[in-house]
Amino acid sequence: MAVLNEEQEMLRDMAREWATNESPVAAFRKVRASGDPEAFDRDAYGAMAQMGWSGIIVPEEHGGSDFGWLSAGLVVEELGKTLTASPLVATTLAAAAIVLGGSDEQKAKWLPRLASGETIGTLAIDEGPRHDPAKLSASVAGGKLSGTKAFVHEAHGADLFVVAAANGLYLVEKGDGVSLATRKLTDQRSHAQVTFDAAPADRLDSGGDSLLDDVLDRARILTACEMLGMAQAVFDMTLDYLKQRVQFNQVLATFQALQHRMADLFGNLAMMRSAVEGGLQALDSGFGIARAATIAKAEANRVLHTMSREGIQLHGGIGMTDEYDVGFYLKRARVLETSWGGTAYLRDHFAGTSGY
Amino acid sequence: MATQPDVKAPGADDAFREEVRQFLADNFPPELKGKGNALAGVDGPTQESDAQRKWREAMGERGWGTPTWPREYGGGGLTRRQARILDEEMARAGAYNPIGGMGVMMFGPTLLEYGSEAQKKEHIPPICRGEIRWCQGYSEPNAGSDLANLQTTAEDKGDHYLVNGQKTWTSGGQWADKCFCLVRTDKSDKHRGISFLLIDMDAPGVEVRPIQMISGMSPFCETFFTDVKVPKENLVGEEGQGWTIGKRLLQHERTNLSGGGSLARMMGASLSDLAKKYLETDESGAIADKVLRDRIADFEIRWSAFLLTARRAAEESKAAGGVSEISSVLKKLGTKLGQERAELMIEIMGFQGLGWEGEGFSEAELAGVRAWLFGKATTIYGGSTEIQNNIIAKRVLGMLDHQ
């Protein structure tokens, strides 16, 4: 993995310890069983905010720690490993949109609240079942936004929506003119169709024409971090399983056919990690972000897709049971793959932005 | 062995970048712009032009061809960060690193770790200056994937060893000055009976015969040793330590054979540029064949991820003071992707990409065909893909030996 400084190592270790002890997959099972449409544990998110995780990319003057994207990615990866249900990614992305495009006033108003965990934010962009930021019909007239966003992550808990309209990004608070219809997806997290009907909207004016693209780059990279954690977890649990499961009087790990498949998965995982960390490093250095973001998400899609399928296959029948954890990763994997660009979209995007 | 971490010092970086730019402006001959390093491969002997020689000497003098090697042995003594700046600036100027070959890729780093002070002082500086060519004496007719089965013997004769046996697949053996060799000093122990020995290729009793390959090229040789006298001071490490040293060298080899050794290669000609030259484009400039366009994008994304992996491995190994645990992964992935790239190129070029000789084909097209064929060796040599899979499964993932 990337060479970390001392501060980043501490942060990573803290996140790993917390996720392992306080938020194992069993915690997600509880959230799922509760049936609460918000689908996350408010106390757990409070603890995460207390540790400063919701403010990692927020500048210090606005109540954050400004530790940078690599640091944010390390935390998200650790939470991805245990499938921690939280609005951390969604809130971080909303904060990023405001950092990039907000006025001083908007920053002063929202960033401290997002950083402290008091306010939960999310992005509301796509209007259909497939990612397509070029086709947006949400519109604004007289400071009121109208339109329907088809699948919004963490919508039930969100206090603040960063909404993409045809002519820019807007901040919309939950309340007047905002209504939710739950769209339960296979990952059992919070997703909703959100309808804005003349909802009061505050435009993010400072980000220039590329603001939506810039926010999407960050969404792709941070989502890829969660996927990296998931892929690592599936790999680790599969390897552990092969090392203890006995068939034909032999431990499965001793079969060369399985060893070579694990070596293939390990190689793929290495590529995914490099692509994802490359995206984070691009964000921190401000260089080549758009290309790095496409590579990060495309590799995350490709590798997690394979990993989640192989994870089930290599476990055999036990992998098919709800009692065992590996299936949860498969279901969350497809939701994240579809978010901010499926593989076909990303390849087309890559070719287009590369000039062919 | 801990190394100094690269400290973030933007001011110092800028100053170094300025120094590199000045050096390139003063020393890099403009007529070499865009050319590659003829010494890096094993394709054949190189007739150096005056410009090439001057450029090599200028870089060798600074030690910048081996930028992170210690200054005291002729290396550049640069931090990883500075080396990256050097790479970036060379790419920007269209310059290349004129120092290379097996001495740089494999033998040098290994000798720096295991060699005696006298050996380092003798062998490292000429490598840094690009004055000498090394070849590798590892494989034998019955010791390929099962390398430890090697039978070439080195018999202790007091002040020297007497070497007898046959090596094969000696890359560039016909042009090499010296050979780093694994030899058997003890027949009773498969692994601990192996030693690491340096042999002069012009010593009496050394005979080299090139082998013609399916590509039509002969970069590999058979090498025969008949009563070759090798002085005792040419033993690297202890007698019987050869397997350990040899394996470490192979890790360096894998990292380099993977094809992603240098960041500068990211700037090289892309598959998409080639595709735009050979394929029809629509009015917006996009490749009209959408299926091929999709496959090219798929490949380029994965190739980029691979180059990032090579960069990550270099950073990790620098930070850890050793070779990254993903060196086997790099070899496995890079060689496969390289082959995939060659196949995709042929598909893009159609019959034009299958010329063997004669008229109607450009030099680049003919070279491309040979490279495609020769590239099939990459997943076989340096430890085949199957061997890399075994190494990853057993050493990295801790899966047990299969029965």
From TrEMBL, chain A:
Its EC number is 1.-.-.-. GO terms for molecular function: oxidoreductase activity. It is an enzyme of class 1 (oxidoreductase). It comes from the Bacteria. Residues 5-118 form the Acyl-CoA dehydrogenase/oxidase N-terminal domain. Keywords: FAD, Flavoprotein, Oxidoreductase. Its cofactor is FAD. Residues 214-348 form the Acyl-CoA dehydrogenase/oxidase C-terminal domain. The keyword Flavoprotein applies. It holds the Pfam family Acyl-CoA_dh_N. Gene3D superfamilies: Acyl-CoA dehydrogenase/oxidase, N-terminal domain, Butyryl-CoA Dehydrogenase, subunit A, domain 2, Butyryl-CoA Dehydrogenase, subunit A, domain 3. Belongs to the acyl-CoA dehydrogenase family. This is Acyl-CoA dehydrogenase family protein. It comes from Pelagerythrobacter marensis. The lineage of its organism: Bacteria, Pseudomonadati, Pseudomonadota, Alphaproteobacteria, Sphingomonadales.
TrEMBL record, chain B:
Residues 135-228 form the Acyl-CoA oxidase/dehydrogenase middle domain. Residues 28-48 are annotated as: Disordered. It comes from the Bacteria. Keywords: FAD, Flavoprotein, Oxidoreductase. Residues 14-131 form the Acyl-CoA dehydrogenase/oxidase N-terminal domain. Pfam families: Acyl-CoA_dh_1 (PF00441), Acyl-CoA_dh_M (PF02770), Acyl-CoA_dh_N (PF02771). Residues 240-397 form the Acyl-CoA dehydrogenase/oxidase C-terminal domain. Its cofactor is FAD. Belongs to the acyl-CoA dehydrogenase family. This is Acyl-CoA dehydrogenase family protein. It comes from Pelagerythrobacter marensis.
